[in-house]
Specification:
The structure is a homodimer.
Chain A lengths: L18 H8 L3 H8 L7 H14 L5 H8 L4 E6 L5 H16 L3 E6 L7 H12 L3 E5 L7 E2 L6 E4 L5 E2 L3 E4 L3 H14 L6 E4 L5 H16 L8 E2 L4 H14 L5 E4 L2 H13 L9 E3 L16 E3 L2 H17 L14 E3 L17
The structure holds a DNA duplex.
DNA sequence: CGCAGTCATGACAGCGCAGTCATACAGGCG
DNA sequence: CGCCTGTATGACTGCGCTGTCATGACTGCG
């Protein structure tokens, strides 16, 4: 008794049609069906059409498990993401999905729970078990040196060589130059120095921004005020702002490592009776959607998530499909500073409270 | 010549060890290795230990493609998401991932590009092709009646029965009751009526919120002012706020369908010389992270994304693993109104500008 | 006309697992 | 003691594809 194909039978559970069923209907061999569906050469137009028609009629869908087993390739890319709804990581994930799909790859996603030790390594391991041709580690947190000594290419977005591996490709989110641009914007407005509310230093992204800030100040020979560290949340920015307003009376410019903290900071400053930007200028980072509409509209730095994801994935796909090709370096994404109303020149004649 | 296992050989490409390799090393049959890795009954403690040790030594990882082919199950759930970094959808996706992993399922993600016709159906199709045991359609946009007539269970989060299918499970994000609570909060403060800035009506979530607003006003016998429709963005909230401030001088309370629009709205009101909450009270929806730190801190409604995701996935997994069980209804998630400083009783004696 | 080269197709094996069935032995019971 | 039930294991097969090789048919050219 042979199997009864999909839509044909009246009763019983319908059985998904296989390539042989299509082949039979089209009057060709199963292998030819495979050829058509893989877009291989050497299939006559006539046969191709017949196969596609037969497939359509039966509602045929290729079984990707069988394909993966036979070919050794899954056409799937695994992503290790952070499991946070923060605008940056979420946007990057979306960009990765789009780029992967455009490249003909499906996506598997595993989130690392923050604070989970060995999270990245474990996540990569589980992806390999699920079967992926390549892995993207998106904006990870520093967990000490992680060895990504795995057999597939790995793209690390937004983290340096801490992630070592034989087939690692690192593409930058390039936050350092962006942070530098933000800081320089404030210096160019005439501020003597710029304070910094940093992100949590376990995040590479936070360190990059800190480094960019330092670099800008160094380059201009300015002193580096003590850094306050937040946790990306508006709440932490608020707390940092309170501390800043209380401790130092000479703060005229602050660069916050993300927009949420900048917004919290502005609120704290406002509560302390300081006006933004009249008394204190504030720059954020990310250009989250609300930034243009908070009070005052926030000057911030826009990250080209889409370009980063696309560029990184291009490299990854190349590494997957042409393992022997040179590991071409990533192109640096463009810097974009969005100047709004939260920054202004310092009030030169403003009397110092403490003098 | 037989294959040389993984870490053993010095030269050449290492070949991933298979179950037979583990079996050989442990002195058992391949089938027994399979039993151990699937946690089946009837394996002696001694054998189990030996197999695990052998697997460890070889660095064995099961091949999930082979497993899927042989068993017909992929242990993977596919998610159709919207491809937006909006807080709601992103949070829901994270909740889904966690819940799926806890249930022992991996995740495949496909984003629908907004405005892509037939996006959901196409996305589901591509997931089926990739091989999934179940599908989650997360907060979709109305594309007309979509028939999810597929062979696997489908969980639709946050959309009504427009998505029909033989094995569909619908779990609510229950935005209607939340929207109703938000509106009633304003009425209880003493406002005569409440204006509404709606989300794009192609979104079910936006319609639910609109319906909740209407229900609250009807229940209290209040008139329903005309609705302004935004697109979730702060920019659209800003535009709506401008229109509102210009057109009507009797606006004392506004319920915005999400926090971003509420923030844009507040900015527009501020620019028009109206104070929040003194002149106008504003309620948002979502409780995005910055909401507590904008000026003024936003009264809003928190959605229990995690609970919704977890509950929905429980139903989906049940439908996958026990196809014959009753399709238990979803439990309604709890309502949580977060009252901050953007709402207050109306200024009773405030002189009307136009009188 | 005969032979090489290209194009088009099919036969067959095997990817690495899980399902099915057979087998073997232990203990309980009438 | 034979029989049955429960436990523990292995042999064999097949899931639905792709890779490899074989086989024709057709083309161009000396």
């Amino acid at each position: 008794m042979s199997r009864v194909g999909g839509q044909g039978g009246q009763g019983g559970t319908p059985v998904a049609p296989r390539a042989v069923d299509v082949a039979r209907l089209a009057g060709v061999s199963q292998k030819t069906v495979s050829r058509v569906f893989n877009g291989e050469r050497y299939v006559s137009e006539d046969v191709r059409r017949r196969v596609l028609e037969a497939a359509e009629e039966l509602g045929y869908r290729m079984n990707s498990a069988a394909r993966a087993l036979a070919s050794g390739r899954t056409r799937t890319i695994g992503v290790v993401a952070l499991g946070t709804a923060l605008y940056g990581p979420a946007s990057l994930l979306i960009g990765i999905e789009r780029a992967a799909r455009d490249a003909g790859y499906a996506l598997r996603v595993v989130n690392t729970l923050e604070g989970d030790p060995g999270g990245v390594a474990g996540a990569v391991e589980s992806l390999l078990e699920q079967g992926v041709d390549g892995v993207v580690v998106s904006e990870p947190i520093d967990e000490g040196a992680v060895s990504l000594d795995v057999e597939v290419p790995v793209l690390v977005l937004g983290a340096p060589a801490v992630f070592a591996g034989p087939r690692a490709v690192v593409a930058g989110v390039g936050a350092e130059s962006l942070a530098r641009a933000a800081t320089e914007h404030l210096l160019e407005l005439g501020h003597m120095t710029v304070h910094h509310i940093a992100g949590p230093q376990r995040w590479f992204a936070a360190r990059d921004r800190l480094a960019g800030w330092r670099a800008a100040l160094s380059a201009h020979g300015r002193e580096q005020p003590p850094v306050v560290e937040g946790d990306w949340s508006a709440a932490s920015g608020h707390a940092a702002g309170r501390a800043l307003a209380a401790a130092a009376d000479d703060v005229t410019a602050v660069f916050a490592a993300n927009d949420d903290m900048a917004i919290g900071l502005i609120r704290a400053l406002t509560e302390a009776g300081l006006r933004v930007p009249d008394d204190v200028s504030v720059v954020g980072f990310d250009d989250i959607p609300v930034s243009a509409y908070v009070t005052p509209p926030l000057t911030t730095v826009r990250q080209p998530f889409d370009a980063v994801a696309r560029d990184g994935l291009r490299l990854l796909v190349r590494a997957i499909e042409k393992p022997d090709a040179e590991p071409e370096p990533a192109t640096d994404p463009p810097v974009e500073l969005v100047v709004r109303a939260s920054t202004a020149p310092p009030a030169g004649s403003r009397p110092h409270a403490g003098d």
